[in-house]
Amino acid sequence: MKRPKTFYIFLFLFVFSLLNSFSGAYPIYILDEAKNAEAAREMYENASYIVPYFNGELRSDKPVLHYYFMSLGYKLFGVNAYGARFFSAFFGALCLLFTFFTVRKITNKQNAYWTLGLLLSSLFFVQEFHLAVPDPYLIFFVTSSLWSIFLFDQTRQSNWLFSAYTLSGLGVLSKGPIALLIPIGAMGIYLIWSKRFNWKTIRSFKPLVGLFWSLLIAFPWFYLVHKETQGAFTDGFFLDHNLSRFSSEKEGHGGLFIITWLFALLGLFPGGLVLFKSFRFLKIQIGKNDLLRFSISCVLIVITIFSFSSTKLPNYTLPAVPFMAVISALYLNSKYAFNQPRTWTYVFVFLMLFSTALPIVGYLALAQEESLNELKSLAFYLDVLTFVSIVAFVLHLKENTPKAIQLTAMGWIFMYLILFGHIYPQLTAFSPVEKAKPILHNQEDVIIFSRMDAAFPVNYQRTYPVVKDYQELKQWIKNHPKGLILTNTRDREHIKFLEEQYLQIFEQKALFENHRTRIFVLK
Q1: What are phi and psi of 205, to 5 degrees?
Q2: What one-character-per-residue DSSP string does 326-384 give?
Q3: Pair (465, 426) in one structural domain
Q4: Do 423 and 446 fall within a single domain?
């Protein structure tokens, strides 16, 4: 019996409610989110939908699609954090729904529910859909294009093939060529592994027509932005933000080969711990189960690509997480999952130790952070996980391991609701952007000297003039004697000059970063 459409509608709304929970409860503050949300704001405010700008300057970091949806969010909900983040949660819910649908269609509802539970209880994965960044869009388009390819392989229904190439083209508009590279690489591994890597099979996927269609979707905007910026966006995006990030370490985000695998496990934590128990199951089932083999192929290509990248960030491996969840779910719903209680004991003991250490580490981190010292008691909310892990361990000892796993998942969901709804709002209230509001509110004459916290433009819904030369600054303040000088420079010479020439009226350290925002006025 087929599930009615209403079931999937309600399932989508349930998932969306978790991924969208408290998205407007705290301001946009972290660097990437601030720059993306502001670029979308400027695009929306100026009704200029080809060239992205941040604070009036070309932003060539990412393509355009997420800016369009953030602009739509601003149109629907106003220019605020909720509007910027709304469609991140929307596409996250679609991603999880498509994954649920595929697993249920190919296997059964038990596997589908295990998959969904693992994904919804993965804090780092869920948090990504609370951010106004391009990654939620990329995760959806890559995941959905891969599932579409797999559904075509299993059913030979051509509409899935059209879906795959369309989604890949939109993925390129979300974050670039990686949206094509991952599906091509995954299918290559899968077909070789399945001993079907031959011209007849490859031709059945219509790769040339499909790639042409994908590129046709993405090409017009890339052509227009190249033309309008006289090649500046093309150089910045493809050479600096793609090739350079792959070939050389950017912004201190490097690391060993193994760190990419750890990032992938972080994406599915705590559910990813199941993978360490599944080796025997994988060895037995991998030759029999197409879904398992395909999911492993997807995980391998994502992790391999970013293992060789010189720049390594935790969010890079998130497109692998839905497929890691499927592997874990297939294991949990197999006869091999609960026949070795001792290995489960190790898992639950680790979770108890980890969840006991977490509030201690959180308390110490907040105590050492100058601006957040008075909020260190917030760390004790993390004791929720400690309590849940102890109860789960007891359930396991009473030979009710499946219930222990389900309780652990619910505990982590409850924890991130507390995080998004209570902890984050209190922490971000101490950010320079929030603390400066009494001074900057309704103040028109503000200039940036050297550099600023990237969250100021989007939160104050304006762009700022920027100067880096002492004489330019002196001339500006001469013309605007009641104006404010805003900076977060770390250059000691700059700070000394400002302190000698002007009166400092504000100083606030950035949250968990090594710079301070200062505001100066004419003495």
Answers
A1: -85, 0
A2: HHHHHHHTSTTTTS-HHHHHHHHHHHHHHHHHHHHHHHHHHHHSGGGGGGGGGGGGGHH
A3: no
A4: no
Residue 385 structure tokens = 């996980």
Give me the amino acid identity at 240.
D
Q: How far is residue 75's CA from residue 15's CA, in Å, rounded to a whole number? A: 23
Averaged pLDDT score across all residues of the chain = 96
What end-to-end distance do the CA atoms of the chain give, in Å?
Answer: 78
Angle at 90 between CA 84 and CA 94, to 5 degrees: 155
Helix (H) or strand (E) holding 504: strand 502-509
pLDDT at 252 exceeding the cut of 70: no
Total of domains in the chain: 3
Token pair, residue 496, equals 């000394």
Hunting for tokens 């002492």 — which residue is that? 470
Q: What is the pLDDT of residues 255-308, one digit of tens each?
A: 677 899 999 999 999 999 999 999 999 999 999 999 999 999 999 999 999 998
Classify 256 as helix, strand or coil.
coil
Same domain, 296 and 418: no
Q: Give the end of a domain, one of 285, 310, 332.
A: 332
| pLDDT score for 1 | 44
The secondary structure of 438-491 as a DSSP string is HHHTT---EEEES---THHHHHHTS---EE-SHHHHHHHHHH-TT-EEEE----
- Is the same domain home to 295 and 181? yes
Treating both helix axes as pointing N-terminal to C-terminal, what angle do 290-307 and 178-193 enclose, rounded to 10 degrees?
A: 130
> Which residue, 405, 430, 455, sits at the end of a domain?
430
Instruction: Please give the model's pTM, rounded to 2 decimal places.
Output: 0.96
Q: In this structure, are 303 and 376 located in the same domain?
A: no
We report the CATH number of the domain holding residue 439 as: 3.40.190
Nearest to 271 by CA among 223, 321, 346: 321
Sequence-separated (6 or more) residues with CB below 8 Å from residue 394: none
Domain range enclosing 323: 89-332
Give a yes or no: residue 251 inside a domain: yes
Segment 11-26, tens digit of pLDDT: 999 999 999 999 999 9
Q: Checking phi first, is residue 195 left (phi over 0); if not, alpha (psi -120 to 50) or beta?
A: left
Q: How many other β-carbons are positioned within 10 Å of the β-carbon of residue 30? A: 17
> Within its chain, how far is the Cα of 340 from the centroid?
35
